[in-house]
Amino acid sequence: MAQYAPNIESLLFASLWEITEAGVGPVSRNCPQIREIDFSNCRKLSDSAILSVLEGCRRLQSLSLSYCKNLTDAIFDHPNWANIKRLNIQRCTGIFDPAFLHWKKVAQAAAIADNRPESPHPFEMEELFLSDCSFLTDSAVASISSVGSNLRILSLSFCCALTEDSLVLLSRGCPQLQVLDLSFCGGAVTDSSLETLGKGLTSSLERLSVRGCIQVTNAGLCNLEILCPSLVALNVSQCKFVQVSVFENSRFKFLKGGVSLLSADLGTLLSLGQVQLHRERSATA
């Protein structure tokens, strides 16, 4: 296929369990125009297969590797990551903190090449999905924040090893974050860390999920509403100390249950009846 379609820009290989480096190699060699590849749930893919894609497909912008459990930190040691705009590595359980140290080195090398060694070159990454990467710690978030000034969408759901410090790092290093999923992030999400987030992302953050974060209270959300006027959509389901009824006159729109705020625009969610509360002062006046 790759030999006869050199100008192809998008490839979907999701759930092709038997595909290996032998099948991926022709793509990296013969399809230089590729911009989007989905390898989700391709369980036999190796590090060398992904590195060959990064090397041969220099126009690549979107890469999905979710559930590719054979991959390791080694795939992150390539300069082309600086040009990728969207990455999904959900439940890639072989990925640990050192993976993202490679990104810091790539950024530093680019800065030196630009004769700006004191200013690490930011990545073009805009969307990053790390859900269920439960072994990641604040160290990974520190590395991501150091290159993530262009990040707009970030999912850290079920990254249970994170602490409150991770939100400090995000609020400082990722000033353009618009959508943030912190569902079931345990001790990382408290009223105090939400205050830090609200102060740091006061004009950018629009949607936030703290589903299952049991340390969040009404008081923390009230404070967040004041600090972060751009925030309009929240998922606080399974937050046992939050009573949505308290926010009837709030501008917040509360999403139901397990509804993802990453995958649909707010208008679509409203039309599907997936918003728990949609009452604003201006609408009820």
Structure keywords:
285 residues, 11 strands, alpha/beta, disordered C terminus
Please outline what is shown here:
The chain is an alpha/beta fold. Helices cover 30% and strands 12% of the residues.
Topology, element by element:
Elements lengths: L9 E3 L8 H10 L5 E3 L8 H10 L5 E3 L21 E3 L9 H16 L13 E3 L8 H10 L5 E3 L9 H9 L5 E3 L9 H10 L6 E3 L8 H10 L5 E3 L17 E3 L10 H6 L3 E3 L3 H4 L1
Parallel strand pairs: 1-2, 2-3, 3-4, 4-5, 5-6, 6-7, 7-8, 8-9, 9-10
Antiparallel strand pairs: 10-11
Please describe what this structure looks like.
The chain is α/β, with parallel strands linked by helices and 285 residues long. The chain has 9 helices and 11 strands. Strands 1-2-3-4-5-6-7-8-9-10-11 form an 11-stranded mixed β-sheet. The chain starts with 9 loop residues before the first strand and ends with a helix. α1 (21-30) runs parallel beside α2 (47-56) and α6 runs parallel beside α7 (218-227). Helix content is 30%, strand content 12%. Residues 266-285 have low confidence and may be disordered.
Which class of secondary structure composition applies to the elements? Answer: alpha/beta
Give the N-to-C terminal Cα separation.
61 Å
What is the ordering of alpha helices and beta strands? EHEHEEHEHEHEHEHEEHEH
Shape: globular
What portion of residues belong to β-strands?
Answer: 5-15%
Name the strands of the widest sheet in spatial order: 1-2-3-4-5-6-7-8-9-10-11
The residue fraction in helices comes out at 25-40%
Unreliably modeled segments: 266-285
Q: On the 0-100 scale, what is the average pLDDT?
A: 86
Sketch the major β-sheet. Answer: 11 strands, mixed
Number of strands: 11
Helix count equals: 9
CA gyration radius, whole angstroms: 20 Å
